[in-house]
Amino acid sequence: MYYVYFARCQDNALYIGKTSDLNNRIKKHNSGKGSKFIKQHGMAKIVYSENYNNHLEASRRELQLKKWSRIKKENLIKFGHPKNENYTKKI
């Protein structure tokens, strides 16, 4: 199982990533070993995630989401995507 997730940083910046283990990934981010982006914007917490069966599906979705406007991303976090069976929950 793979996850595509949004992490909100201390300065309200959004990070989009993919992983096979959400809990370990956010711990890694917040320990300073995750991504340069989160190091620059402060500690983060996962605010949205979707699950996928394989790495390719997750990668495609991650790229799609990264192209979206900030408003569209915020609406997805706030309301979810009712037609997307991969949507798990807001965390």
In short:
This protein is α+β, with helices and mostly antiparallel strands and 91 residues long. Helices cover 41% and strands 29% of the residues.
Which sequence of strands runs across the widest sheet?
2-1-3-4
Our estimate of the beta-strand percent is 25-35%
Give the rounded overall mean pLDDT.
88
CATH architecture: 3-Layer(aba) Sandwich
Distance, first to last CA: 18 Å
Please provide the ordered H/E string of secondary-structure elements. Answer: EEHHEHHE
Number of structural units classed as domains = 1
The count of helical stretches stands at: 4
Verbal overview:
This protein has 91 residues and is of the alpha+beta class. The protein has a single domain, classed as 3-Layer(aba) Sandwich (GIY-YIG endonuclease). The protein is built from 4 helices and 4 strands. The protein has helices spanning 22-30, 36-41, 55-66, 70-79, and strands at residues 2-9, 14-19, 44-52, 87-89. A 4-stranded antiparallel β-sheet has the order 2-1-3-4. A hairpin with a 4-residue loop joins β1 (2-9) and β2 (14-19). The mean pLDDT is 88.
Keyphrases for this structure?
four-stranded antiparallel beta sheet, GIY-YIG endonuclease
